[in-house]
Amino acid sequence: MNFDEELKRRVEKTEEVIRRFLPAEEGFSGHIKEAMNYSMNAGGKRLRPILMMESYRMFGGSHAVVEPFMAAIEMIHTHSLVHDDLPAIDGDEYRRGKRTTHAVYGEAMGVLCGDGLLNYAYETALKGFEYPDNREHIMLALSVLARKTGVDGMLGGQSVDVENEKDGRIKIEKDMLDYIYLHKTAALLEAPLMIGAILAGTDRGAITCMEQIGRKMGLAFQIRDDILDVTSTTEVLGKPVFSDEKNQKTTYVTLLGVEGAREEVHRLTENALRLLDALEGEKAFLTELISHLAYRDK
Amino acid sequence: MNFDEELKRRVEKTEEVIRRFLPAEEGFSGHIKEAMNYSMNAGGKRLRPILMMESYRMFGGSHAVVEPFMAAIEMIHTHSLVHDDLPAIDGDEYRRGKRTTHAVYGEAMGVLCGDGLLNYAYETALKGFEYPDNREHIMLALSVLARKTGVDGMLGGQSVDVENEKDGRIKIEKDMLDYIYLHKTAALLEAPLMIGAILAGTDRGAITCMEQIGRKMGLAFQIRDDILDVTSTTEVLGKPVFSDEKNQKTTYVTLLGVEGAREEVHRLTENALRLLDALEGEKAFLTELISHLAYRDK
């Protein structure tokens, strides 16, 4: 398998799906819709919808019902980036080399555009009911989407991470750091793997297994971020390095050192791959993707 | 009917319902949940859940399935107030005499708490599926809730209102002002009236009629706001008067004068009451409530 080519094919398919579900920029509210589309088209990896599609296909899913959910999870992810970049939170003007939403459209629109994306994610996912599919699956998929996004999921993790960013004034212990990483990052990787499995109609055991894979993958992903912040360069990473040290943030590197953090990424990734290995279905690409993310250079 | 007593009874019932659906303030994310509960308990009129319950009962509904939706619409409304008060938008430190969310919990938490409430509204409304009720109704109710909240509903109206707040630099025509009022305000009054009717299992004609009642009621409600801003006092209103003039905002008063605006409120309210009159069911309280809001002093 040529991984890069297979990834490119999936990104293109995902781009096409997302495009179909974005709002038309018309009417008096055309401006906020333009801001939403700008944010959605600012060049993300499309990792979450790709994970959902892989999981869905792995469990035998072959219908279009997964598509509104693919678009929805990318809208939720983008919402979190738009709000994270606000002056009230991280205060970033650029993301992936492009000016971020509030820098282009103003701060008020930054807030409302993020709200608009979060809400539009539900408007979009609810379109799942228009497809001829098992409604039990769609209901469960909606519940997982909402829970993993909310204050017991991603938003909960972000709210605690804000404390970690107060210039190290609060001493973060490992269990609190794990809470942040498992919610801020892992929850929104668990959700697409679970939703793919749910929509394909698989059993509860396999859904829980996909959740565990997402959990380990998400934790490894975030620890890899910590490592790159101290081992990479601004040129390769496309963003300033040593930012955690500068912000006096507790990370896996400050807790375990670079070598300890590397070992943790390896252990978690092996765990995720072993869990995946025990499941049936076509999973060659997903296996490669998990390794690719854990050992990425940027 | 003693209107004030009947209203008080309904507010108390609604408070009890809302309380049951608020998140427990525990775990690492206890702080954001505390901020959400603070915002939800900052003394609102509970108008939207009350409208939903009245509509539900009027069409013969008698089950608890309406309750998660009652809590959800109040969470959505509160989310919009929390974000509106942010320095990025209105920059208000007080609401109803209490310090607003970001003034108590900080600006980052103000953003995340608003997001948390919006998302929790869907987590809560999705609990509707746990009740033994017609799933078709719940699916439709969820769609209406999402659409009336989003960029073709309330959030769309707020995004255009932001333009109107740019110190009058943009000339607002009547059709744009109507767009703002019908979306910013009316959409979230249409939603509860429609959802009550939907969950009670009524027909499409009656649902559309309830939407129209909400539309006229919402427009009248907002125009009444414009009037009070120039005819009331800060003491009675509990907030500064002449704020529209100060912010150079276009309002119904600047377009039609106080007398013209009064006539418009009267015309819209008579329209709403005539539509309600044509429907079956117990609607004495709802009739009084519509008049009460249109001719309120604060």
Name the helix and strand elements of chain A from N-terminus to C-terminus, one letter apiece: HHHHEEHHHHHHHHHH
Largest interface (CB < 8 Å): A-B, 54 and 54 residues
Q: Which word captures the global form of chain A?
A: globular
**Arithmetic mean of pLDDT of chain A:** 94
Main sheet specs of chain A: 2 strands, antiparallel
CATH superfamily of chain A: Farnesyl Diphosphate Synthase
CATH topology of chain A: Farnesyl Diphosphate Synthase
Secondary structure tally: strands of chain A:
2
Radius of gyration of chain A: 19 Å
Tell me which oligomeric state these chains represent. Answer: homodimer
Question: How many structural domains are formed by the residues of chain A?
Answer: 1
Structural class of chain A: mainly alpha
Relative strand content of chain A: under 5%
Q: Which spans of chain A of ≥5 residues are poorly predicted at pLDDT below 50?
A: none
Distance between the termini of chain A: 22 Å
- CATH architecture assignment name of chain A: Orthogonal Bundle
Instruction: Enumerate the strands of the largest sheet of chain A in spatial order, edge to edge or round the barrel.
Output: 1-2
Report the CATH C-level class of chain A.
Answer: Mainly Alpha
Helix percent of chain A reads over 70%
Separate helix tally of chain A? 14
Overview of this structure, please?
- The structure is a homodimer of 298-residue chains.
- Chain A is an all-alpha fold and 298 residues long.
- Helix content of chain A is 70%, strand content 1%.
- Chain A has one domain (3-294): Farnesyl Diphosphate Synthase.
- Chain A contains 14 helices and two strands; from the N terminus they run H-H-H-H-E-E-H-H-H-H-H-H-H-H-H-H.
- Chain A starts with a helix and ends with a helix.
- The model of chain A has no long low-confidence stretch (mean pLDDT 94).
- Chains A and B meet through helix 2, helix 6, helix 7, helix 8 and helix 9 of A and helix 2, helix 6, helix 7, helix 8 and helix 9 of B.
